[in-house]
Amino acid sequence: MVISADSGNNGAARRPAVTLQDVADRAGVSRSAASFALTNRGRVSEATRQRVKDAAAELGYRPNRAARNLRTQRTGVIGLCLPPGSTIREYYMDLAFGAVDAAREEGLLVAIISGEYPASTLLDFDGLLVLDPQLDDRMLKAAEKTGIPVVTGERPLQYSTAVRGTVHGNHEQTFPMLLDHLETQGAKIPALIAPVGSTDWASSARAAYFAWCEARGLEPRIYETSFPGTAEEVSALATELVDDRSIDAIISMTDGTVIEVLTAAMAAGREPGRDLLIAGAADSSILQYTEPQITSLDLRPRDFGAACVRLLRRVIHEEPTDPIVEVSPVNLVVRASTAKPLDRGDS
Predict the structure, then answer these.
(1) Which of 32, 149, 152, 296 has its CA 20 to 30 A from that of 201?
(2) For residue 44, what is the domain's CATH number?
(3) Which residues pair with residue 192 across a beta bridge?
């Protein structure tokens, strides 16, 4: 039996590839309008954009990435730069998945960069997404030398000519939501276990905590770890803090480390959710399965990662004169560890 090169597995004629013109015809628009709609460029109404995308989905249209990149002199690849020690954190992994999902929708590929990366090879990327940039961040300095546009996830602590956009959680405004909640539940002396202020997230939350304490005439009780902070560091601090019965609430900032506070509290005979309020500043899935479940700020990492990628694509194509800044929402998730007012017994 002879099977034609144009046949499928069953000898049937292979369907011709769907073209951009086919999509344009289905949507009832010009070829250029279809191209603008699919690449989120140009002045195309949202209704037209959606109609074109629906037509592309119905027809199974797949853009020729190689041809498009050849025309635009771009690689179609962006770099996602993770801070040191981040690959074991659920927050960063969720953020990375959100970024990858958004990149796929935008027709981009993502290369995840963790640790040192030669500056010369940054030319392989159309742009970089730098998460939690540090003081004297090496990736920002490398991007400055190569002229690669950067979007940062959280604000850079120093000016960089490479940064053309930023998405941040506005932590000066959102972190006090957690502090106010603890106060409402009766906390008078909340302690904070926080990383050093080497990132915008850490420094902004710490500043918000100091300002909150000052407004109430309270002495700040802040205990410092490295960034992003290890379970061992938090465990040692938590063991010390839970023995101090004057402390009625403890917040641990780094995602997952609040488990160490819960463990130390129970070992010391404290009753989390009753005589001690416990909360995290970066939610993770495990906090839903502890006993009691633990209150936390939800930084919405998947949405955050997706917003960063969409902004990076925008600055790559628009080349804005001034950096674009966007704010990503943060939610307070109240669980059993702080759901009820403190029980102070006979005190």
Answers:
(1) 149
(2) 1.10.260.40
(3) 222, 251
pTM of the model: 0.79
Low-confidence ranges of the chain (pLDDT < 70): 1-15, 40-42, 63-74, 115-121, 346-347
Query: Are the C-beta atoms of residues 154 and 228 closer than 8 Å to each other?
Result: no
How many residues are present in the chain?
Answer: 347
The per-residue pLDDT for range 115-157, each reduced to its tens digit, is 666 655 677 789 999 999 998 898 999 899 888 999 999 999 9
Domain tally, the chain: 3
Range of the domain at 155: 75-169+301-330
